[in-house]
Structures are given as C-alpha cells and as structure tokens.
C-alpha cells in the first residue's frame, strides 16, 4: 500500500464500493485500506462536499450514493448485426465527452472489446448495455444472454471444471477462435479499469486495482444465463492503455503480448493446497506462448513438494525459452522452493 497516496486511494476505493451499490462502504474500505473508519469518513465528507456523493438518512442509518449525472440503458438484438464501434460512439462517448484522451482510450478499449466478445463469442440473442455516469466515475455493464464464458471455454478446451476455465481466461492468450482473435481483450480490460467484474455460469472473476492482491474468483448465485461484465473507471484515470500494454512485453523493443501474469491462487480450484505434478502441468499449460511469465503466489499459503518441483524445475527444463519470475512468495513457499533438487 502506498502511504503517501492514502487519501486519494481511500477516495478511489469509496467510489468503487459505491459504484457497485454498497450504500454503507465505510467499514469495508477502512478494512481494505488498513486505516481507521474516521479516516475513511473524512474522505467520504469530501466527496459529499464536492457533490460526487449524496447522503440519505442520518446518523448510523445514513446511506450513501454516487450522484448520478446520467444513466442510459439500451437493448440490442444481435441478429440485427450490431457493430461495437457504433455503440461506443452513440451510447457511451456522449456521456464522457468532457474527459481527456487517455480516459477515452481506456473506455473505448474496454467497451469495444467486451461488446465484441458478446457479439462474436456469446451466441446470445440480445445484449444490454447500461452506462451510468457519475461526477467522479463511470460504470458500464454489458450483459448478454448467451452460453456464458466459462462454460464456453470449459467445453471448447475440454476442461474438467468452470474454475479451470476462469484460470485459463486469467492467463490471457486464450481464444476459442484463433484464426480471428488473439485472446487479449479480457486480460487487458481487467487491468485497465479500477474495478472489473466478469460473471457467468454462477462464477465471478473480479479485479480491484486499489486493493493489494485485488484478484478474486468466487461463486455467485446469479442464475441468469449469459455473461455479465461490469467496468468501473474513476476520474482522473491512473494508467494509460500504452502503459498497460508495455508492462506485458517481455523484452524491450518487442511488440505484442509476450509477458503474462499468472495468479496461482486462481489455480487452486477450491482445493486447499497446490500439491500434485498433474496440477503443476495444468498451471503450466499454454505458457510457452509467452517469453516471460510472472508466477504470482499472492494468496497461496503453501505448496506441496511435487507441485513445486514440477512447476519450477521439470517443466521449465522442457521449455527453457520461458523466463519465469516469482513474486509474492511467503516463507513456507520459499522453504519449499529451497528444497527443490535436494
Ligand atoms: N460474452 C462471452 N460469451 C461467451 N464466451 C465469451 C464471451 N466473451 C469471451 N468469451 C470467450 O472467452 C475467450 C477470451 O476472450 P478474450 O476477449 O480475452 O479473447 P478473444 O475475444 O478470443 O480475442 P481478442 O479479444 O484478442 O479479439 C473468447 O475466445 C471466447 O471463447
Ligand atoms: Mg475479445
């Protein structure tokens, strides 16, 4: 957590919580930012004074809402030949015409990519786009009534479970249409927005840019068919499309998506520990498509000796061209790594 940016960070986190409709966000944000409730309350008062947040009720029962500047909801029939750039131009762009070029670039990327996915992959009849513009942020939801992303991927790649499909999506360069697509849209959209949520088949994949280890996979009870994507961008934007692209290039001067970030906690698939060699092979699957792979152990408590030997010694010896970088290793995992080959 970056201490000097805390007031700004608390504001960003409040905006995200309120965007996903938590009307009493103080306790949660205090916990996530590791600050006192008073510190969060102070930032909430600033947001109210700035006209970004409104309050209903008094004292303990107070509820807080983002002041809505505009809200649009449009329903499109995919059989009519929907084109994503027209939805961007006619529905979203007019609500953010006051924002700068870097912000528009992030929004255009996310909206076009997620809509293109609904149009080209979902087998849906309809897609609904909701755009809510607030003073300090914008929330865009894209909902289709198709097969659901995790089922589509599990079926196409014959994976044994939906969480496995989620893990493969999170690695990037996963596509069911390799002749026409690269498998980049979700990977980069998830990293460009302040909050990202992808839900389908009773499973959600989420990222919050302001929480340490802000990646999450969880089951949800939303029974509707299809895929739902929510994107929240806070103003001013904290990153540019180019920066995020550049962070995923393995070697300077190279172009394209050659460096990925593997979230090992998403590979646990509900099991307590990463234990077996077969599990390590699952994690390593498709990684030869990248020049560099960051293996991120955040949220992984411990690993078994067979798993770590296979992942860090046996498999890399077969694919020596992949540069592996390990991050967020706790002491237990460090000890397991030290035992490799001994
Ligand atoms: N709305 C959706 N419904 C069903 N499946 C989806 C949906 N969105 C994405 N997918 C599946 O997830 C895969 C990954 O999506 P992603 O956007 O990351 O890559 P892509 O669309 O294949 O390639 P690119 O985005 O680079 O054009 C898709 O190939 C598709 O199989
Ligand atoms: Mg795509």
Overall 3D shape: globular
- Count the domains: 3
Low-pLDDT windows of residues: none
SS elements, strand count = 12
- Alpha-carbon distance between the termini? 36 Å
Give the name of the CATH architecture of the largest domain: 2-Layer Sandwich
Residues in β-strands, percent: 15-25%
Main sheet overview: 7 strands, antiparallel
Structural class: alpha+beta
How do the helices and strands follow one another from N- to C-terminus? HHHEEEHHEEHHHEEEEHEHEHEH
CATH class of the largest domain: Alpha Beta
Bound molecules: adenosine-5'-triphosphate, magnesium ion
Radius of gyration, whole Å: 21 Å
Strand arrangement across the biggest beta sheet: 3-4-5-9-6-7-8
Average pLDDT, rounded to a whole number, is 93
Helix proportion? 25-40%
């Amino acid at each position: 957590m970056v201490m000097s940016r805390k007031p700004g960070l608390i504001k960003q986190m409040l905006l995200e919580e309120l965007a996903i409709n938590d009307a009493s966000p103080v306790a949660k944000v205090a916990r996530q930012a590791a600050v006192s409730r008073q510190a969060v309350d102070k930032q909430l008062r600033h947001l109210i004074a700035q006209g970004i947040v409104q309050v209903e009720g008094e004292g303990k029962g107070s509820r807080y809402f983002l002041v809505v500047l505009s809200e649009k909801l449009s329903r499109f029939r995919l059989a009519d030949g929907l084109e994503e750039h027209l939805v961007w131009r006619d529905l979203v762009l007019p609500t953010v015409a006051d924002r700068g070029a870097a912000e528009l670039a992030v929004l255009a990327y996310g909206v076009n990519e997620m809509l293109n996915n609904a149009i080209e992959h979902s087998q849906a009849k309809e897609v609904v786009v909701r755009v809510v513009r607030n003073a300090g942020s914008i929330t865009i939801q894209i909902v289709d009534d198709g097969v659901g992303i995790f089922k589509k991927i599990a079926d196409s790649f014959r994976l044994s479970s939906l969480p496995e499909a989620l893990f493969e999506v999170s690695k990037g360069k996963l596509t069911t249409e390799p002749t026409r697509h690269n498998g980049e849209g979700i990977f980069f959209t998830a990293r460009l927005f302040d909050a990202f949520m992808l839900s389908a088949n009773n499973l959600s994949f989420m990222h919050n840019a302001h929480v340490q280890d802000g990646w999450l996979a969880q089951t949800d009870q939303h029974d509707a068919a299809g895929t739902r994507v929510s994107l929240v961008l806070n103003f001013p934007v904290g990153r540019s499309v180019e920066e995020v692209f550049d962070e995923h290039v393995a070697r300077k001067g190279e172009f394209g998506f050659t460096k990925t970030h593997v979230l090992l906690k998403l590979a646990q698939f509900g099991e307590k520990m990463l234990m077996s060699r077969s599990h390590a092979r699952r994690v390593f699957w498709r990684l030869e498509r990248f020049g560099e792979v960051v293996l991120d152990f955040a949220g992984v408590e411990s690993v078994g000796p067979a798993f770590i030997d296979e992942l860090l010694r046996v498999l890399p010896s077969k694919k020596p061209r992949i540069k592996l970088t390990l991050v967020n290793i706790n002491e237990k995992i460090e000890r397991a790594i030290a035992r490799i080959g001994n």
